[in-house]
Amino acid sequence: MSRACAMVLTLASLSIVPGGSPDAGIASRVPLGQAHASLPRSTGSAPTGADPAGRLGDPDAARRAEAACAAAAMGSPAANGSVDALVSLLADETRVAAPECGAPSWERDGVFEIGEQWRTCTTSPAFEAARALAALGRIAFEPLLGALGGTNAVVRRYAALALGQGGDTRAVRPLQGVLGDTGWEVRLEAVRALGRLHAAPASPSIVARLKDDAPQVRAAAAGALGEIGAGPAVPALVGALEDPDWQVRTKAAWALGQYESAAAADRLAERLRDDHAEVRAMAAWALGEIGDARVVPALGGALGDATPRVRSKAAWALGQIGDARALPALAAALKDSHAEVRQMAAWALGEIGPGAQAQ
Known about the structure:
By secondary structure, the chain is mostly helical. The chain has 19 helices and two strands.
């Protein structure tokens, strides 16, 4: 197993949730812990200084992915001649082992959200081509717009991914145009891309995706609204706390915490009794970000939750709020059976201090 794979699996075992965006890329994924040894791998190295254009059409999928990865590392202008070949690869979803052509995959693509399958060392030529086109910047912009308007849904999906990663705000309007695409995966990547671009003018269109038929799109819409930070979206996100899909509820709670919206505090407190532990944990975190002392009793009750992660987040939130009414419950949490909860309770007690007053 490569160093990159080992790192991803280590992060997965710790259930790390990033503090930033909750959205990850759309690389081909395998279930956590599944061996990747049987996936195609390139038998040779792909020096980042070599011209990858000729290898982008290699009969071997792993070499095509490696060549696209090399093009991303080269960037513009060195790989400008590869644009057309890279666009052609956007249809190629062949799953292969992730190449190590420069930074390892966990550095290139970030850490992953809870609820996603982890990107355990697999990729595809399409995903690597999208990364490369994003890295090439302006010279790839018009070709990507053409791909976004094409007839192949796979190509449209990876074009949306590349436009979001490219950071060019001229892509906002075209991406809005595919939010109603017939392919849910295209809608998913368009929503994520608009979030990455912090496209506030697109907020109403993204709010509408909170009612999408696909729960993955609804969850991505909540995450994108959290990244954009558009206050008018708060009522819609509060409504999303009732979504039947737990991942949508989790991301809605995250977004409301990003907004630090006191108007959402009561509804988030209700989510402390959600039937899914991740929703309860995210609601506790969000309440700590908001800092509304009215929810101290509800958070104190969450210190008795059956899941240690929820108890720990509740203790953290109480420390953030700093209300003396939490002191007895936090003192009792010092005897919790899990060390993380005890440590967070001790921290919270220190934050509140012996001279604290009830708010």
